Automatic annotation (TrEMBL):
Transmembrane segments: none annotated. It comes from Microbulbifer taiwanensis. Residues 1-23 form the signal peptide. Its EC number is 3.4.13.-. This is Dipeptidase. Keywords: Cobalt, Dipeptidase, Hydrolase, Metal-binding, Metalloprotease, Protease, Signal, Zinc. Its cofactor is Zn(2+). NCBIfam families: dipeptidaselike, PRK06156.1. Belongs to the peptidase M20A family. Pfam families: Peptidase_M20. It is an enzyme of class 3 (hydrolase). One of its GO terms (molecular function) is dipeptidase activity. InterPro entries: Bact_exopeptidase_dim_dom, M20A_pepV-rel, Peptidase_M20, Peptidase_M20A.
C-alpha cells in the first residue's frame, strides 16, 4: 500500500471524530502544523530570503511583463511550486499555486508586489533579508507585507501534501502582482475565474478581520501665485513623504529671509513636540529645516509620528505669505493638524461602534505640474454615506478658502467604500485555530483600517499575519516579521487550510 494511502486511512478517523465546526482544532490539523514547523521552518525562511530579493515595485510606464523584477519573481515562484510538488498557473497579473483536485475550493489571497523603500533608512538593502541586525527579526521590504505570508502558505501546503491529509477542497493560493498600485487587472481576472466559496486573505491582522475601512483621499493643490515679500520671511519650499499609504517619517522646509527671532520661535515650538527630531541648517538668507518622525502604514497612523504634520505645526509661529508652500502649511495647520481623527476638518469626523473612527493622515506634499499638492489619506468606516462625507469635505474646504483668502487650483476627493462581511461560515473555525495556537480564548472578529483584496471576493475575511495590538510594519521603513511570529504563522496557516479546506 502506498504511504499516502496509509496516511489517509490513519487520518480519516481523526477527521470524522472531530467535527471541524466544533470548539476544538482537529487532531490532524494540530499534528500537521507541528510537522510543518519541525520540517520546514528553515526552508520557509530561506524562501522568504529568495522572494524579497526582487524589487517588485510598480514602475510607471513599464508593463508587468517587461519588468525584470516581476518576471524574475514569478519565475522564482514557479520553480518553488514545482520543487514542492504544487501546481503552478501564470495568468499574467495573477499567479495561482494549488494543492488538490477537488471541485470545491478554498482561496488564499496574497500579493507579491511591494511599496518602495528608501535604502538610506535601512541597515542593509531593503531587498535583502536581514537576519543579523536585530536578532529574532527578519527584516526586509515584503517580510510582513506580503512575501512572508506567501512563503508561509507554500510550506503549509507542502506539509499537508507530505502528510497526505484528506481535503474536501482544493487549496488555491492566489498571488496578485499589483495590489499596491492597480486593482483593475484583478477585477478583470475575477470575471472569468471560478471564485472559491471560502476566501481568506493573509495580508492583514489576527484574530479574524471581518471589516475594513474604505481607502480614501483628499488632494488639494496650491498653485503658484505672485507674492510680494520685500525681504520679509517666506517659505520657499515645503515637501515630504514617500508614497501615499505611508505616514511620512521625513519632511523639509526652507525659510527664506529668516530673522533671528523667527528662527528662535520655530526652534522653541519644535522643541516642545514629542517624537520628532529636527535638523536646522542655516545658510545665506535661508534656513533649511528637516523634521524626522516615524513611518508606519497609513491605515494605522496611531503607530507613527507624522513628520509633515509636525513640521507644519512647528512653522505655525508665523503668518506665512500665500505662495504654494505658505498656503499649504496654513491649510495643514488649520484643517488637518497633528491629530489623526480629522477633528479640525469641518464636520467630517465620525466613528462606527465596531469599525472605530475615521482616521486621517497627510502622507505626501509634492510639487507637480499643477503646483504643490497635499495628499490626505482617510480610512473611512461605515456610518456615513459617501455623498454626505464628500459634501462635508468640500464644504470645509470652501469655508477655509473663503476665510483664508487662499484658493486652491484643484480639489479632488476620492472615497472608497468600507467592507464588512457578517456571518461568514468560516469565521468561527478560524477563530478556533487562533485561540488554540495563541491561548487567547476571548479572541473575536476585528475591523482594520487597511484595505485588502478581500473587498473583491465573496465571503472573504483576513487571517494574519500581524498579531492583535502589534503595529503593522508593512509600508514602514523598518518592515520585519519576528522569527517567532513566522513560526506561529506556519502553524496557524497549516491548521487553517486543513480546517477550512474540510468545511
Amino acid at each position: 500500500m502506498k504511504l499516502k494511502s496509509v496516511l489517509v486511512s490513519l487520518f480519516l478517523p481523526l477527521l470524522s471524530s472531530a467535527p471541524l465546526v466544533s470548539a476544538e482544532v482537529s487532531p490532524v490539523a494540530q499534528d500537521t502544523a507541528a510537522y510543518a514547523v519541525e520540517n520546514y521552518e528553515g526552508a520557509m525562511t530561506d524562501t522568504l530570503a529568495e522572494l524579497v530579493r526582487f524589487e517588485t515595485v510598480a514602475r510607471e510606464g513599464v508593463a508587468l511583463e517587461k519588468n525584470r523584477e516581476f518576471t524574475g519573481f514569478k519565475r522564482a515562484l514557479r520553480n518553488k511550486a514545482r520543487e514542492l510538488g504544487l501546481e503552478y498557473q501564470d495568468h499574467g497579473h495573477v499567479v495561482i499555486i494549488a494543492l488538490g483536485q477537488g471541485q470545491e475550493k478554498l482561496g488564499i489571497v496574497t500579493h507579491g508586489d511591494v511599496q518602495p523603500a528608501n535604502p538610506a533608512k535601512w541597515n542593509k538593502s531593503p531587498f535583502e533579508l536581514d537576519r543579523e541586525s536585530e536578532p529574532g527579526k527578519l527584516i526586509a521590504r515584503g517580510s510582513e507585507d506580503d512575501k512572508g505570508p506567501i512563503a508561509t502558505a507554500l510550506y503549509a501546503m507542502k506539509a499537508i501534501k507530505d502528510r497526505g491529509v484528506p481535503m474536501k477542497r482544493r487549496v488555491e493560493l492566489m498571488v496578485y502582482l499589483a495590489e499596491e498600485s492597480d486593482w483593475e487587472p484583478l477585477k478583470a481576472f475575477l470575471k472569468t475565474y471560478a471564485i472559491p466559496a471560502y476566501n481568506i486573505t493573509i495580508d492583514a491582522n489576527y484574530p479574524v478581520v471581518t471589516a475594513e475601512k474604505g481607502w480614501s483621499e483628499v488632494r488639494v493643490t496650491a498653485a503658484a501665485t505672485p507674492i510680494e515679500v520685500e525681504g520679509k520671511p517666506y517659505l520657499s519650499e515645503f515637501y515630504g513623504g514617500y508614497f501615499r499609504s505611508q505616514v511620512p517619517d521625513e519632511a523639509h522646509a526652507i525659510v527664506t529671509n529668516p530673522t533671528p527671532a523667527l528662527v528662535e520661535a520655530i526652534r522653541a515650538r519644535a522643541g516642545r513636540q514629542k517624537g520628532v527630531d529636527y535638523e536646522f541648517v542655516e545658510g545665506d538668507d535661508k534656513l533649511e529645516i528637516i523634521a524626522r518622525g516615524k513611518a508606519t502604514h497609513s491605515s494605522e497612523p496611531e503607530h507613527g509620528v507624522n513628520a509633515i504634520a509636525f513640521l507644519a505645526d512647528a512653522l505655525k509661529v508665523h503668518d506665512w505669505p500665500a505662495n504654494p508652500a505658505g498656503s499649504t502649511v496654513r491649510y495643514l495647520n488649520e484643517l488637518v493638524g497633528t491629530g489623526i481623527l480629522a477633528e479640525q476638518f469641518g464636520d467630517i469626523a465620525y466613528s462606527d461602534d465596531f469599525m472605530g473612527p475615521m482616521t486621517a493622515a497627510v502622507t505626501m506634499v509634492k510639487a507637480d505640474a499643477k503646483g504643490l499638492t497635499s495628499y490626505l489619506n482617510l480610512r473611512r468606516p461605515t456610518g456615513k454615506s459617501a455623498t454626505q462625507l464628500d459634501g462635508e469635505i468640500r464644504s470645509a474646504l470652501a469655508g477655509w478658502q473663503k476665510s483664508s483668502g487662499i484658493e486652491f487650483a484643484t480639489i479632488e476627493v476620492e472615497l472608497g467604500d468600507p467592507y464588512r462581511v457578517d456571518n461568514a461560515p468560516h469565521v468561527e473555525p478560524l477563530l478556533e485555530v487562533f485561540r488554540h495556537f495563541t491561548g487567547m480564548e476571548d479572541a473575536g472578529p476585528v475591523a482594520i483600517g487597511g484595505s485588502t483584496n478581500a473587498k473583491l471576493l465573496p465571503n472573504a475575511v483576513s487571517f494574519g499575519p500581524s498579531m492583535p495590538g502589534a503595529a503593522y510594519t508593512g509600508h514602514s521603513e523598518h518592515e520585519f516579521i519576528t522569527a517567532e511570529q513566522f513560526r506561529l504563522n506556519l502553524k496557524m496557516y497549516t491548521a487553517m487550510m486543513i480546517e477550512i479546506g474540510n468545511l
